[in-house]
Write a structure and sequence with these properties.
With 178 residues, this protein is mainly alpha-helical. The protein has a domain of 113 residues. 39% of the residues lie in helices and 7% in strands. The protein is built from 6 helices and 4 strands; from the N terminus they run H-H-H-E-E-H-H-E-E-H. The strands form 2 sheets. The chain has a two-stranded antiparallel ribbon with strand order 1-2. The protein has a two-stranded antiparallel ribbon with strand order 3-4. Helix 3 packs across helix 5. The two termini are 20 Å apart.
């Protein structure tokens, strides 16, 4: 998937049917297993969902970090216990790794809403009061380590007016890697 992404073939968070077929052929040559396009799309969706869980822990929660050697999220025992108590179905993330977290971040970040104003379609719309301020701050990465979790806040802006530094957190991370 990543190789096809680098070729610019990921369009609106998915690939064309032809590209999925190519991915299926490449996987069958490597793994000697046949996958349907629906199976490949399902695997990609599950990978994106797992990446999103790791991403949210590393970039949106304080007290969590990333270990690039073991490909796991790190936190103190107290912080894990607190988080697991609030998210019991996700308790396995403390031991589970995601070896290609950096590649997934590069590939999925552009198509996944990641800021604190990200909205689900099931959520009610924002109140359209133009005098309210909207927080446009985004976490950014330490350019020395693309998987560090140091967050820097950008200034607030009035609704409809974005001030300097309002680029998305994903764009900042990808640019800092090159």
């Amino acid at each position: 998937m990543y190789e096809h992404y680098k070729k610019g073939q990921l369009i609106s968070s998915t690939f064309s049917e032809q590209i999925w077929r190519e991915i299926g052929v490449e996987l069958s040559e490597r793994n000697r297993a046949q996958y349907t396009i629906a199976q490949l799309k399902g695997k990609a969706t599950r990978l994106r969902m797992l990446w999103r869980k790791f991403y949210d822990l590393v970039y949106k929660r304080t007290g969590f970090g990333w270990d690039p050697t073991t490909y796991t999220v790190t936190a103190s025992e107290d912080r894990w216990a607190e988080w697991v108590a609030a998210n019991p179905r996700e308790s396995g993330l403390g031991k589970k790794g995601l070896p290609h977290f950096d590649l997934c971040t590069e590939m999925f970040c552009a198509s996944v809403a990641t800021s604190n104003i990200a909205r689900s379609f099931a959520m009610p719309p924002f109140d359209n009061n133009d005098h309210d301020e909207v927080d446009v701050s985004h976490p950014t990465m330490d350019t020395g380590n693309p998987l560090s979790s140091g967050a820097v806040k950008n200034p607030r802006a009035a609704r409809g007016v974005q001030r300097k530094g309002g680029q998305s957190d994903c764009s900042n991370r990808i640019v800092s890697r090159f």
